[in-house]
Amino acid sequence: MSSILKENMNFDDTFWIATTAMRLNRSHPSVARDRLWRIQFTLIFILTLSCLIFLLYSVFFHDIQYGLFTDASKNAIMIIVAFTITYKYYILVCNQDTLTELIRIVNEDYKLAKEFCEEEQHIVLHYSKRGFNVCLYWFISACSTSAIFPLKAFILMGKSYMAGKFELVPMFELTYPWILEDYKNVHVVFIMLFGMTLFFDVYATSMYVGFDPIVPIFLLHLCGQIEILNLRMSKMFSTSNNSDETIRNNLKEIITKLQDIYKFIEIIKTYFTVLYEFIMKTTTFLLPLNAFQVTQSLRNGEINLEFIGFFTAVILHFFIPCYYSDLLMETGEKFRQAIYSCGWEKHSDKRALRTILFMLTRAIKPIVISTIFCAICLDTFAGMCRESYSIFNLMNAAFT
């Protein structure tokens, strides 16, 4: 049997963009949690915490007190980002064994797929390519958004230098505690503060590129596995030469694989439910905050490139898991229809028919991941957008 899948096809090589980013920030589940990792993690945590403290100080002790609500909303966005990436790192560290097991299951499915027929191998390859495209979307979105902040600062400093009036331009417009505020334009202090914010920018990028494609990749892989079962189910009773025993064995294999898929989904729900509730809530506030930044800039006759790109990335942040969870639910519904229309009514084996009935009953329950209170799907995304728009209107009425 010819194979259209690569002989050494595995998770890390197929989705190398995400796994490389996780290795760079030392969050990949295969990275040993040894002394070297603890030192690296401590440095990452200290620099991120320092940046978060300065952001909080600027918002609550300067921007809000002086009525600078545009600056306050801008820095509030970065505060939410800091909390989000820290929470994601926490999930990757605490659930190292679970993620390793999920990746092992995917690799095992790839290994088994090399023995499938070409049609089924095409399905596996199709969904693995779609998973890689998710990695590519996040790489382009996160890198282009984060690169604008340092590029803008360097360009403005270059323009001031060419004009003969060199000025230091920070990445983030922060107000520091008085000790640093008085010396923030001293070259050594400026370089240290700029390096800290640049590190935060790069670290946040690596977390979004590395972490956010993971669950959509798993969901797409499950879609492929269900579509293969869909194909097998549609052929179950099409061949009259199959004996009752052969049909029972084929049904048993399908049910065994279905149970593995249901367990896989339950693992995702167990470890990512709270995260997606958190993402949904933070996105509800990030969208209006970003939109407020963009509209305020336009009112001042400026174009805020940083937050235009950030606005797109924020939408992707919740849209992508909603879209692929909705796709998983749709694929599960197609499988239910395939069970019903497989031709069971022409078969007389009662054991096989009881198995079909059991599968139909179980398939009534949608295959979907969820937050604490609702399923993650496109309807949920639409509801989140409506809530964000209401907050945006309230901000416009209050601060303009």
UniProtKB/TrEMBL annotation:
It is found in: Cell membrane. One of its GO terms (biological process) is signal transduction. The lineage of its organism: Eukaryota, Metazoa, Ecdysozoa, Arthropoda, Hexapoda. Its main location: membrane. The chain crosses the membrane at residues 39-60, 72-92, 136-155, 188-208, 303-320, 367-385. Keywords: Cell membrane, Membrane, Olfaction, Receptor, Sensory transduction, Transducer, Transmembrane, Transmembrane helix. It is a multi-pass membrane protein. This is Odorant receptor. GO terms for cellular component: plasma membrane. GO terms for molecular function: odorant binding; olfactory receptor activity. It comes from Grapholita molesta (Oriental fruit moth). Belongs to the insect chemoreceptor superfamily. Heteromeric odorant receptor channel (TC 1.A.69) family.
